[in-house]
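Recall from the previous lesson that a structure prediction takes nothing but the amino acid sequence as input. Here we apply that procedure to Pilin from Roseateles saccharophilus. The sequence below is the only information supplied.
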Amino acid sequence: TITGNGVITMTFNAATKVGTDLGGNTITLTPNVGDTAIVWTASTNISNPTLVAAITKNNT
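The prediction returns the following tokens.
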């Protein structure tokens, strides 16, 4: 889903073979527009700290 100022929200379908079920959890990508680049900030409602770290590791 793309909303507002280009915010992208991705929702996981149910998947029991990926560790804990991620179904219904989301990853949100929010653009931050600079003078020469767009930097994306990732956020999530996933509770697994290892997955959260992997999703958000490149945030600035």
